[in-house]
Task: structure prediction
Amino acid sequence: MECLGPQCAAMLLEWLKERSASIGAANGPKAAPGQGLLWTSVPYQEDAPAIRTAAEFEGAIEHLEYAIFRRYHNQLTRAERARLENTIDNALFKVERYLSRLEGEEQAAAEARYRALRDAVREGRDRSERLRDQARRADQKLAQLGSLSAEAFEEFVAEVFEALGFEVERVGGTGDEGADLIVRRDGLRGAVQCKYHSRGVVGSPELQKFLGTIHHTRSHKGYFVTTRTFSLAAERFAAEHPIELIDGPRLVELVREAIGPGARREPEPSWF
Result:
């Protein structure tokens, strides 16, 4: 068909507009773009002064469970710890006030859930305080480590592992087959050998003997702790076996880790 000039072009544009409008109507209204959610929580407003409904109570319980887990099972900065402690205290206060308005079986069931969370908070705070005390003692000894005896060094290493959350059994002495400590955490067992060296390096022959100790004590892993350093051959041997090497600088790092990310950093001791 032959185009008639400007009039033909205008008709073609009008037809295109009408067709576009009809296609849009057939497809329905355009949905607003949105981001997919991994999960949705039941309602709870942390800034709200009170819990008023059963749904908000469920939200508060969920909020508390996560806050307790994050506070007492993660490495946090000092500011994060303070914020979560405040969150937990506020939620517990509002839950307690909400429970006072309930009656009968509903109140009994809700109180049981509240008591379980309150006990978890108390246990977490007690454990955190114990670990902080152990870490502080280890930090105080760290500055005096150059003058410790071999027995005091072993005690210091035990305190460091306890501050890191291990259960520690002291087995040093005659017949210990080279293991000074047995440590346990998360179902795993480790053998620890403490060597207080005033100078020199730890070589691979000592680690070969220690590997026998690991097998003899039926441990999953071994920790060889010394105030000095390891030879290259020793490092290569440890890389091929379940042995973690902890020298002077690494020992300082572990003490700082036990104290927490918010701890004040001091220069490394001069006894390296």
